[in-house]
């Protein structure tokens, strides 16, 4: 009877009958990417493909509760593809954090993706490590045709009645994330001299911008992020992004890159840290510049946006390359030094 009961339970659960519960897999590093163009390997790459191919993430792990199957290698590196936008990112990261197959309590998290960049701060193909990530969706808004003459923007912080009202109100949950500055500095110092890909098309485009940093060859820097699910473009919205980040960080953050998903990812990681399932001090956000967030002088915002349709960014492929070239030394260092970094966060 016991054997029959066991066989019935095995049939229902899809597992064998054992008194020994399988231990969760300890994960050293989670690499978080947001989109892929096609297959995980062998075709036009998105953010996931270089990590899969070059880090040998050969073990495919079903993940029906998330956007895309997970991949892992024998070194303890786990790759996740969240899907585009804050909603998909938040759902996929929460699903991973609650997955009983994995022990993520000492895992490091590396968000590695492409982004638009402020030409005042960086050039195409550059890579920016963020210390501050600010949400650009939580707000009030009125139509641009109804903005009062003395307003800079029709975008108003939540629970405020005018743009950048002083004093700033209390921080809304999910509005601002301040990452572990010591870890960010450690990652930056480790990678600041990594050579980045440049090409003739990038050189030609950046010469159209008068900004000194825009004209530089690609480089690694520290720079903060505005995350918004709306893909925006233009000089005036760039000014809004700078003002928005400055306002919500009390002047401590400097907007450099625009992306979509990272406040969703960080919101889920925050809640998971409250549950003791992850360590929020072990999170890094790296974004690389596939395009400028505004057109060069002489072109309209509409013309600039049209040139970026269907991800036809001048630095699309170099930005994907930069995300791996700059992110991978951090992953490799954490894995090779795991005996130390398992219990001690580098830089702290």
The assembly state of the depicted protein chains is single chain
What is the N-to-C order of secondary-structure elements (H for helix, E for strand)? HEEHEEEHEEEEEEEHHEEHEHEHHH
Q: Which of globular, elongated, flat, extended, rod-shaped describes the shape?
A: globular
Please give the share of residues in helix: 25-40%
Unreliably modeled segments: 4-20
Secondary structure class reads alpha/beta
Mean pLDDT across all residues, rounded? 93
Tell me about this structure.
The structure is a single chain. The termini are far apart. The chain contains ten helices and 16 strands. It is globular and about 65 Å long. With about 350 residues, it is of the alpha/beta class. The strands form three sheets. Strands 2, 3, 4, 5, 7, 8, 9, 12, 13, 14, 15 and 16 form a twelve-stranded mixed beta sheet that branches. It has a two-stranded parallel ribbon with strand order 1-6. A two-stranded antiparallel sheet has the order 10-11.
């Amino acid at each position: 009877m016991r054997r029959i009961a066991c066989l019935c339970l095995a049939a229902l659960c899809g597992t064998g009958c054992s008194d020994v519960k399988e231990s969760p897999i300890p994960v050293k590093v989670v690499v978080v990417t947001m989109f892929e163009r096609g297959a995980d390997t062998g075709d036009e790459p998105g953010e996931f493909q270089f990590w899969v191919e070059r880090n040998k993430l050969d073990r495919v792990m079903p993940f029906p509760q998330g956007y895309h199957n997970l991949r892992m290698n024998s070194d303890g590196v786990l790759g996740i593809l969240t899907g585009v936008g804050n909603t998909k990112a938040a759902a996929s990261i929460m699903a991973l954090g609650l997955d009983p197959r994995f022990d993520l309590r000492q895992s490091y998290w590396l968000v590695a993706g492409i982004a638009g960049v402020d030409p005042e701060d960086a050039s195409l193909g550059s890579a920016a490590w963020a210390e501050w990530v600010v949400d650009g969706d939580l707000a009030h808004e009125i139509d641009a045709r109804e903005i009062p003459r003395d307003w800079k923007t029709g975008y108003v912080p939540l629970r405020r009645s005018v743009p950048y009202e002083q004093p700033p109100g209390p921080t809304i949950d999910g509005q601002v994330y301040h990452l572990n500055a010591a870890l960010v500095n450690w990652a930056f110092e480790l990678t600041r001299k990594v050579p980045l890909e440049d090409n003739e098309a990038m050189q030609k485009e950046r010469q159209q911008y008068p900004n000194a940093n825009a004209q530089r060859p690609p480089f690694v820097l520290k720079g903060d992020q505005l995350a918004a699910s709306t893909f925006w473009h233009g000089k005036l919205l760039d000014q809004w992004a700078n003002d928005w980040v400055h306002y919500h960080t009390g002047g401590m953050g400097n907007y450099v890159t625009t992306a979509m998903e990272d406040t969703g990812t960080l919101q889920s990681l925050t809640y998971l840290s409250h549950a003791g399932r992850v360590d929020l001090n072990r999170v890094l956000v790296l974004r690389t510049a596939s395009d400028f967030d505004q057109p060069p002088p002489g072109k309209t915002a509409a013309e600039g946006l049209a040139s970026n349709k269907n991800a036809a960014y001048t630095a699309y492929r170099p930005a994907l390359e930069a995300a791996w070239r700059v992110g991978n030394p951090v992953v490799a260092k954490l894995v090779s030094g795991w005996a130390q970094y398992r219990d001690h966060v580098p830089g702290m």
